[in-house]
Amino acid sequence: MTLNSYKFFFILLFLSTSAFCQIDNLKWQKADLSYEKPDNFIPRNYSFESDDPVEFVTKSFTNAYWFFVSDVDGDNCPFRPSCSVFFLDAAKETNIFQASLMFFDRFTRDTNFAKGHYHYPHVRSGYFYDPPQNYTLNQGKINYIPPAFIVDDK
Amino acid sequence: MKYCLIFFFLIPLSTLPQSSFDFHSPENIKKFADHLFCQGDYLRAVEEYESIKNSNLNDTIDFKIMLCYSEIGLYQMSNLSEVRLSKSIFKKEAECLSLKNRFKASPNSFYKISEIKVYPFSKEDRLTLNYFQKLTSVSFLLGSNELISKDEIINPFDGYEKKTMLSFYEMKVNPACKSPALAGVFSAVIPGSGKMYVGEWGDGITALLATSLLAFLAYDNFRADHKTRAWIFTGLGAFFYAGNVYGSIAAAQIFNARINFEFSEGINLFLEQKNYFMPEYDFCN
What we know:
A: 4 helices, B: mainly alpha, about 75% helix, about 0% strand
């Protein structure tokens, strides 16, 4: 065998090696990880979009709550939906009077100094899941979810 | 060099020859289907079984088809096999499996079959009748608001099953529920006590402190003739008070929903553990 034959043989060998190369090694490359806490802040929408007087009142109350409580307090509401969104959802689900009662009850539970939130399920981002549908006093609407469950909040 | 190259190309050709083995013969499809069945891949196993049904059908395959459909939740499809198995050695098993399918399709209303007294099996067969009575008892516990007597519920069972069914019966008759009205009244009398009644002590104490504090601030400001502040605290206190009464009623309802959930989950877990009172069929060893 001449030198060229050896070269040809090795080229053939290397070609087959490269054709069946391990592509799994892509999995082991460096990952771009971030250890920063995700920012869950949702930009406030203070605008009044509806002509409905009830929605005007609820939105006014919510805007005032955002301005005087939420923005001062920071991201401290342990629940999802947050208290202000809970009030808006409750008003859509029931009426403004019932929604107000639901809100004050929620606010009391939010300020629970013992932090006894062990009986709520979580959403993926770690907050406690507490939808207004469970508080309409309509037994049929209650969707009980055990605390061990993770709820997809989307 | 020439020989070397020829040798180099011939080796892979000889190591990967075109096999004349017929992978798609009914016997091999059955072997593959059996393998999938034993792996628990019922969806693909039933596809394979169905493909050889016309050429290689026997009672075992038909019963396995029935089992596969039952496992993947296609209960009506599963029960189609029952007719074909009515004259086979799997007759009793097929009848029981068919009852299990009916139960799983509508566990809360399965007991209605016993009310209309049209039984989907021969009543002379004591084993199937006992199986039917077991499922009917469980269905009564799950779905019926008017319970039948304790004896009727627990009589079809023996030993450990009887004990467990007795405890489920007691839970159904005397559930550990809380009265929403009572919770509301408690909170109306002493703010927060309704929440404490349903076991939410932290919420109850917080409500008591918040309402008391606002009531004191309102009283103090009225006394000092600071009317505007006094009315603000009065309004806030009234809302906290009313919200707490409302929340106590809601909390009792949620508590009861939890009790009902745990009751039905407990029965479901028991049924899963007992394989719905069906024997385990070992087709894999």
